[in-house]
């Protein structure tokens, strides 16, 4: 079993648990000894609360994604600058080697 198979199975189990929990909660509310109007109000309130929690969770995920993207961009920029410095040092070393060769060749 590959890592992808395990992660898909885990998310499936979590999703199944959440669907079961929501179904159980809805059934418990529907069969509670309340009037239909009270039950609808409670269901509406729970739906609004769940929607708000989902929206906040989505915002947190987006913020973390932005932070991760900024961190990655910063890391790439630092690596690009380090690579440019190495390239410049190598070019300087090659040019110094060529000049030394020319100087030695002229002495002969």
List the topology elements.
Blueprint: H1 3-30, H2 36-107
For this entry, give a set of tags.
108 residues; mainly alpha
Describe the structure.
The protein is mainly alpha-helical and 108 residues long. The protein has one domain (32-107). It is built from 2 helices and no strands. It has helices spanning 3-30, 36-107.
Query: Helix share of residues?
Result: over 70%
Count of the separate structural domains: 1
* Spans of at least 5 consecutive residues with low confidence: none
Radius of gyration over all CA atoms, rounded:
32 Å
Total beta strands: 0
The fraction of residues in strands falls at: under 5%
| Structure class | mainly alpha
Outline the biggest β-sheet. Answer: none
Number of helices: 2
Distance between the termini: 70 Å
Outline type = rod-shaped
- Kindly state the mean pLDDT as a whole number? 85
Order of helices and strands: HH
How would you summarize this macromolecular structure in one to three sentences?
This protein is 93% helix and 0% strand.
